[in-house]
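Renewal narrative, Specific Aim 1. Our central claim is that a sequence can be written position by position from structural information alone. The example that follows is taken directly from our test logs and has not been curated for this report. It begins with the C-alpha cells describing the chain, in the order in which they were read.
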C-alpha cells in the first residue's frame, strides 16, 4: 500500500489494483474514493494534493480489493443510476442495468395516456416503477415482489424519488393482484438457466440467486407471467418483458400462443434482442 496518502496517490494505486479486473479502473477508483470520503469526484480531481486520513485510506483499499474480486460497484457504494435517477442498492436486489431502461422506453411508447394503471412485477430496487412514475405523474403504479427485503429497498427509493406515487405489495408476480386489471404490465423477471456457468462468475455470483434463476431453460418465470397476464390486462393493454439475449423467439412464441397480438422484440444498445412486447386484444366473444 502506498505511503503517500494524498488523494492523487491513493487514486493511482486504487486504479492500478483495478486494472484488469474492471473495464473502467480509473472511474471505479474515483467513485469508490468519493464514496468513502463522502464527496464528489469533481472535488477529488480539483484537490489531488490533499491528504487523506489513514483510516479512510484503509477503508478505501478494502473496497477496491472487493471490487477487484468482482463485487458490483453498486453494492460497494450503495448507489446506482438508472434513468438518470440515483437509486439505493443493496445485495437484496439486482443491480439495475442500462439494458433494462429499454423496458421503460417501450412502456412509455406503448401507453401514452396521461392516466393509466400499471403493474411492475418483480420490482427489485423499484427501478422500472420509479422511472415510469417520474415520467408519468398521472399513472397509478403498483409494484410486486416476493422478497420483503427487496420491497424495503424499493419503498425507500420511491420515498426519495416518487413519494406517494407507487403501491408496493409482497408476493410473487400476480399473487397480490387478484381481481385487478391494468393497462400495462412490465417485468424484468429472472431469466438465467439453472446451472448456467455464468452464475458462478462476477458479477452474478454476488447478486441474489432468486432474482436470476428461472428453471432449467431460464424461461419458467416468463412463461408463468405470460400465462396469467390476460386475466390482469384490460382489452388493448400491453405487456413488456425483459429477457435474455437469446430468448426473444421463445418469448414471442409464448405470447402468440397465449393469444397476444402485435408481438415484437426490440434490441438493446449492444444489439441484443432484449425486450419483447405484446398486446392483449382478443376478438369479441360471439353470442348466439
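The sequence written for that structure reads:
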Amino acid at each position: 500500500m502506498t505511503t503517500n496518502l494524498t488523494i492523487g496517490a491513493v487514486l493511482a494505486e486504487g486504479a492500478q489494483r483495478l486494472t484488469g479486473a474492471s473495464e473502467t479502473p480509473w472511474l471505479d477508483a474515483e467513485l469508490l474514493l468519493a464514496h468513502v470520503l463522502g464527496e464528489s469526484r469533481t472535488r477529488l480531481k480539483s484537490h489531488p494534493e490533499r491528504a487523506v486520513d489513514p483510516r479512510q485510506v484503509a477503508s478505501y483499499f478494502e473496497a477496491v480489493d472487493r471490487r477487484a474480486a468482482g463485487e458490483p460497484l453498486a453494492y460497494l457504494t450503495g448507489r446506482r443510476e438508472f434513468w438518470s435517477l440515483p437509486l439505493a442498492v443493496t445485495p437484496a436486489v439486482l443491480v439495475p442495468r442500462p439494458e433494462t431502461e429499454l423496458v421503460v422506453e417501450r412502456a412509455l411508447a406503448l401507453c401514452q395516456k396521461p392516466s393509466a394503471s400499471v403493474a411492475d412485477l418483480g420490482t427489485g430496487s423499484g427501478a422500472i416503477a420509479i422511472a415510469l412514475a417520474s415520467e408519468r405523474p398521472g399513472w397509478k403504479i403498483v409494484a410486486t415482489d416476493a422478497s420483503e427485503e427487496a420491497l424495503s429497498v424499493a419503498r425507500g427509493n420511491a420515498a426519495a424519488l416518487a413519494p406517494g406515487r407507487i403501491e408496493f405489495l409482497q408476493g410473487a408476480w400476480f399473487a397480490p393482484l387478484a381481481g385487478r386489471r391494468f393497462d400495462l404490465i412490465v417485468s424484468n423477471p429472472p431469466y438465467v438457466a439453472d446451472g448456467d456457468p455464468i452464475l458462478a462468475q462476477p458479477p452474478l455470483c454476488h447478486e441474489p440467486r432468486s432474482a436470476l434463476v428461472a428453471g432449467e431453460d431460464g424461461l419458467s418465470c416468463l412463461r408463468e407471467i405470460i400465462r396469467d397476464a390476460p386475466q390482469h390486462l384490460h382489452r388493448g393493454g400491453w405487456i413488456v418483458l425483459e429477457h435474455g439475449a437469446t430468448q426473444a423467439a421463445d418469448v414471442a412464441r409464448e405470447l402468440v400462443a397465449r393469444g397476444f397480438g402485435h408481438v415484437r422484440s426490440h434490441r438493446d444498445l449492444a444489439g441484443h434482442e432484449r425486450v419483447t412486447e405484446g398486446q392483449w386484444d382478443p376478438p369479441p366473444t360471439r353470442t348466439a
